[in-house]
């Protein structure tokens, strides 16, 4: 169970700061990996020195369409990273998603769709947990995953996959590369380059 505000008053730097109005938000029941405490803040959540979050459900927006506009207006230009967590709690959401996507874009917010309160809580926890983490370990994990993915292709071994990642830096760049460019990668040659290029560009369904 997450620590209460009274028990972590001395650890605010390591805690998720929440607006008192969000204490009874159902997502708070799913905050387990980090401490949290109440604070006198404008947004709903503060996940870092420059990161904040607002919470909204589609059902609530349908009943109170001006609410999020007023919240964003009050938030102004505070915080460099602003996240709008949108709980999709109704099946009638297409028109609302279009509206809120446009709003988030113009307000400089990152819109994240959540399909449950538990998922919304995990996003808040992740933002806080990775607040002070360097990017290198995350990039290394992505690189390892991409290497494993490439080496699963027939006739492409781990050495080939590592060479491709070293040359292009990302799986996306490899996919965008031409057959001729892939051929220049040490150890691949025209046959493997042809196979890779064909695999990346052939349709999934025939």
From TrEMBL:
Gene3D superfamilies, per database record: 3.40.50.10130, 5' to 3' exonuclease, C-terminal subdomain
Any one of the GO CC terms: ERCC4-ERCC1 complex
GO function terms (MF aspect): damaged DNA binding; single-stranded DNA binding
SUPFAM superfamilies: Restriction endonuclease-like (SSF52980), RuvA domain 2-like (SSF47781)
Subcellular location, principal: nucleus
Database matches in Pfam families: Rad10
Recorded coiled-coil stretches: none
One of the GO biological process terms: UV-damage excision repair
Domain ERCC1-like central: 16-128
Keywords attached to this entry: DNA damage, DNA repair, DNA-binding, Nucleus
CDD domains: ERCC1_C-like
Subcellular location(s) per record: Nucleus
InterPro entries named among the record's database cross-references: ERCC1-like_central_dom (IPR047260), ERCC1/RAD10/SWI10 (IPR004579), Restrct_endonuc-II-like (IPR011335), RuvA_2-like (IPR010994)
Taxonomic superkingdom: Eukaryota
Entry keyword Nucleus: yes
Similarity remark: Belongs to the ERCC1/RAD10/SWI10 family.
Protein name: ERCC1-like central domain-containing protein
Protein's gene: 109593734
């Amino acid at each position: 169970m997450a620590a209460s505000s009274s028990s972590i008053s001395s650890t605010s730097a390591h805690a998720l700061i929440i607006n008192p109005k969000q204490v009874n938000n159902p997502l708070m029941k799913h905050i387990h990996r980090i401490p949290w405490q109440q604070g006198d803040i404008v947004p709903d959540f503060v996940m870092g020195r420059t990161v904040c979050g607002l919470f909204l459900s589609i059902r609530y927006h349908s009943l109170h369409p001006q609410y999020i506009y007023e919240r964003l207006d009050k938030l102004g230009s505070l915080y460099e990273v602003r996240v709008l967590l949108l709980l999709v709690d109704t099946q009638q959401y297409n028109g609302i998603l279009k509206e809120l996507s446009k709003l988030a874009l113009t307000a400089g917010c990152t819109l994240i769709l959540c399909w449950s309160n538990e998922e919304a809580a995990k996003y808040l926890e992740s933002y806080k947990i990775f607040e002070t983490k360097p990017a290198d370990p995350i990039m290394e994990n992505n690189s390892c995953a991409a290497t494993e993915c490439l080496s699963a292709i027939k006739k492409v071994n781990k050495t080939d996959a590592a060479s491709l990642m070293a040359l292009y830096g990302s799986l996306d760049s490899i996919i965008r590369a031409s057959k001729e460019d892939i051929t220049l990668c040490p150890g691949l040659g025209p046959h493997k380059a042809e196979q890779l290029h064909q695999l990346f560009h052939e349709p999934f369904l025939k």
